[in-house]
Amino acid sequence: MWSFKRSRAPVGFTALLAVLLVAGCTVEPLRGARTTVGSGIVSDNLLATSVAEVNTRVAQQVRNELLFALHGGNNNVPPRYQVKLGVTATASALSIQSSSLAPTSARVVVSASYTATEIATNRVVAQGNRRTFAAYDRTTQSFANERAERDAENRAAKEVAEQIRLALGQQLSGS
């Protein structure tokens, strides 16, 4: 008869090693309170962030998405930081139909640069660039093409705003 007898030391050592590895983990929720003393609260920093006015449709779309991502559509916190955005959007054809030389698919590239300054001191606390792509199909109908391009711009604007929110959360967590 066969009996399975092993020492429990390797199992205990593995469990202890796993606990120590997880204890060193610094992953934490972006909207939750941080647990280390003196590190601040990320969500409070994001709530205390205003976004400056912009002047193009795509930039306004990025701004609106960023404001909603930062505040959830409702903000009663006085601003501590102000974010200035620079947004560009360009469309380009990806493929061309060989018989008519008409583009059949295209993409929109939305690029955004941001600079966050502390309002009280005018000190730059975060800055960076983000870029994303959104593809769309082109047809022979001009209105459908315009609408598809606008929808692609909106999708890309939402993605860029989310990237900026995540970057701000990371960069403002240390300030």
Can you describe this structure?
With 175 residues, the protein is an alpha+beta fold. The chain has a single domain (40-172), classed as Lipoprotein like domain (Double Stranded RNA Binding Domain), CATH 3.30.160.150. 38% of the residues lie in helices and 29% in strands. The chain has a four-stranded mixed beta sheet. Helix 3 (57-71) links the parallel strand 1 (49-51) and strand 2. Helix 3 crosses helix 4. The termini are far apart. Mean pLDDT is 83; it is low at 33-40.
Task: Give the arrangement of secondary structure elements.
Elements (H helix, E strand, L loop, with lengths): L8 H15 L18 H6 L1 E3 L5 H15 L9 E16 L6 E16 L4 E15 L4 H31 L3
Helix pairs in contact: 3-4
Question: First CA to last CA: what distance?
Answer: 66 Å
Gyration radius over CA: 24 Å
Shape: flat
Low-confidence stretches: 33-40
